[in-house]
Write a structure and sequence with these properties.
Layout: H1 2-39, E1 44-45, E2 47-48, E3 57-63, E4 69-74, E5 83-89, E6 92-96, E7 98-100, E8 107-112, E9 120-127, E10 133-140, E11 145-146
Parallel strand pairs: 1-10, 2-3, 3-11
Antiparallel strand pairs: 3-4, 4-8, 5-6, 5-9, 7-8, 9-10
Length: 195
């Protein structure tokens, strides 16, 4: 009978030990899942900017003077993660490096291969730090803002400095006394027969 009591006591202690072990494992697994879920970044639907935009959005599609496409992004705030863009068109995916504007820290310009007008472009935005997808969207490129060269104003000298070869039509062309007026005279060639 004593062996039976020892066996029951050891069994009870073993069951209590296993229950504690399972509760500890359950707690550890739950904590790991919560920490992994907090690290999951929500992928934002990338849209064109409007007056109420509070997420990352596209302002315009443009082209630079080397015929490269420039995608102009608006950031929600200055501390937004640095990123690059993968753009797909006609089955080809190209990486667009991005640069924050010095004049406006919530403006980013990404430059890459130009997409023809009237075609769609699939855009995915990835963080540079850990290469995580943070935004995506598909757009129809219906207009491209083209950079036009700025023409500098031409400097025209003052009227006194500008020499003119001919008098202007408004100038009075009357001879002065110092100028001589002559009347053309005709002379006959003696070898030419007279009538």
């Amino acid at each position: 009978m004593k062996q039976r009591q020892i066996f029951i006591i050891l069994g009870a202690v073993g069951i209590i030990f296993l229950m504690c072990w399972f509760s500890i494992l359950t707690t550890i697994v739950k904590d790991l899942r919560e920490s992994n879920e907090s690290k999951v970044v929500v992928v934002v639907d990338l849209t064109l900017c409007d007056e109420d935009s509070s997420d990352l959005c596209i302002v315009t599609f443009g082209a630079d003077n080397q015929n490269q496409m420039v995608i102009h992004f608006q950031l929600p705030d200055e501390d937004y993660a640095t990123f690059y863009v993968k753009a797909a068109n006609r089955g080809t995916t190209t990486m667009y490096p991005c640069e924050v504007s010095e004049a406006a820290p919530t403006t980013v310009y990404c430059t890459g291969v130009r997409t023809p007008l009237g075609e769609t472009i699939d855009i995915e935005v990835y963080t540079i730090d850990n290469d995580t997808l943070i935004a995506r969207g598909t757009f129809l490129v219906s207009a491209i803002a083209v950079v036009t060269p700025i023409s500098l104003p031409t400097i025209v000298p003052a009227e006194e400095e500008t020499p003119t070869a001919f008098p202007s039509p408004t100038d009075d062309v009357t001879p002065t006394q110092s100028e001589s007026t002559s009347t053309p005279t005709s002379t006959l060639d003696p070898s030419y027969p007279n009538p």
